[in-house]
Amino acid sequence: MHINSRMIKMAAGLALICSASANAELNVFACEPEYAALTLSLAPDAKVYSATTAMQDPHLVQARPSLIAKMRQADLVVCAGADLEIGWLPMLQMKASNNRVRSTDTGLFYAAEHTNTLDKLDSVDRSMGDVHAKGNPHLHFDPVKVLEVAQGLSAKLIQLDPDNKAAYTQALSQFSGQWQAKIPQWQQQAQSLKGKKVIAYHSSFRYLFNWTGIEQVADLEPKPGLAPTSSHLATLLARAEKGDVMAIIVASYQDERGAEWLAERANLKVVTLPMSVGGNEQSTDLISLYDSVLSLLNGVK
Amino acid sequence: MSVLKTPLSLVAIGCAFTSVAVMAEDSSLTNPNISAVLDGYYQSGDRAMSERAEGFGLGETELAISANIDDMFYGKMTAVLASHGGDTELELEEAFIQTMALPEGLSVRAGRFLSDVGYLNNQHLHTDSFADRPAAYRAFLGGHYFDDGLRVSIVAPTDIYWNLGLEVFQGDKMHAADEHGERDFSNLGVYTAFTKLGGDIGVDSSWQLGLAYLSNDNGKVIGEEENDHVDEGDAHGEHDHSAQYTGENTYIADFVYKWAPNGNYKYQHLTVSGEYFRVTDIFGVEELDLDHADEHDHGMLSEGATNDYHEGWYVSSVYQLSPNWSAGLRYGQVDTFEAHGDHLDPQKLKETEISLAWHNSHFSTVRMQYTHQQGTNFEGFEDDNIITLQYVMTLGAHGAHQF
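^ Those are the sequences you sent over. The predicted structure of the assembly is below.
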């Protein structure tokens, strides 16, 4: 969108005056818990609300009244983007009538716009299932991409609340320091997973597998967004019987029934990974989420 | 009702559809959201006040285009193609702009749009879990009430969702029956005021309550000597969105409760909803043309009769058993009056409905529905059992999921 930049600054300034007078702390609406956690790391004083939990499919969220009320009061909306929230975010934006969080020029932030997504498609057809032309939006399982997103988000926080620039800069450098210190440790834990083959549900862990070198040889969904069918599971059984599959992976919000049916017949383990912060007891922030996921995967062998 | 009869406009819409749909990705001025809805059915009998007739038929085939116009305005147009008795009509159901940049939770919508009274009314028919709107909607709002007008609404900055709105409409579709065309109808006929409250109960449940008042200047029926004010031809012949039973004041209360395990709507969820309508000041004599020769005959409606009111309600429960299957149960009834000479005849319609739907994806639904309707003095409807088979399929842009 090409809008006069002075206009944007004026709008942003106005929004700030309104929000600053009401409450000094920033009011943040996060679409998913991973972005709520990231925002809290970068703005510890902010009031952060997560619209979903790790037990909910972020594709299928109801634009329910409580979310409209929360978005109405937000100074900043932080979402994965790449059309992950296309089924509910536009409805919330329309109903919340909050002009501060409508444009990425002001109080709206899409993580996918601050890194390169995998699996971008030139053309998308509904017969392919529920796919996203802008690439896979589940990008929070690539540690390097999380850093890139953190930088973008910190810049957005500073844009909206320049008075606290020093605090945001410090929080970013603290988060980046901790995160970068963890990366070699995670890489070491991921080493033994490299080249392992899994059957998984949806492309939820596309980035995790890409980063760790795990190969997803089959999908429990016949097509993205469609539930596992018995005929499709039968073809997966034939694939699993080759004997090279390490485990069946499902995310915390996904139905385990298809995976269990297959696991029983193919004598494989089902591993339920937390999709986000709060997806299991261990995952209380982004760092412990990564720790938990890697330890669960390493526990299979 | 505005019906565009020129084949050219059809072609124009068709061209707009094909050229942009190919590259549809982000909605913008040059690249709007485009969607079409296909709806077809077979029905074994006639339902009271329904636009769907017995046999094979097409429901509302809908073509919608929407986009942000600029940083201030959003616009949407929905054209509906409806086929009735061999005629195909093109009708504009929505053509509105909405402000997006007003401060303090304010928004203004202008043009033709669905009124925000009640729970179902602002939702499109194809999102329903049953083949037809509840009888109360068919009786008092013409199925779904859309009209030319203006809305101002505000969302309060509270943790509990609280929305307040005012609307003013032309109100043609809410006119009382006027067989002889002798009435002067006011051209700003309908005013509404509504409020909605909503929130969550824990992580599993969400709720919304609504209250609405609709004032209809042209809703009161004037007593006549031979008044069969519901023309049977209207109900089944023409594509008629008009309300069948009107009054000066309509009060609507509605609720919806949704439950999903862990708040995850993907696999299972339950929706329970209900609405109650009360339409008052339904008959009167004071608006009569004073020159009318039979003036004195009209004063014969008894005091009790003019205090009568129409009433209707339904309760519906829909359970999504799996991503592929959902089942619904709905009960509703309407109690209305018809004037015959100097007295009012009460009539009643009860409907019990069961629906079972198969969804291959979010975008395709095949539905089987059983309806038992029981009419008492109701337009000749008595005990009927009706089976409906229906498909509803969406092409194009994702429709956002409304609560």
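The longest strand of chain A covers residues 245-251. Chain A touches chain B through 47 residues (CB under 8 Å).

Shout if you want it in another format.
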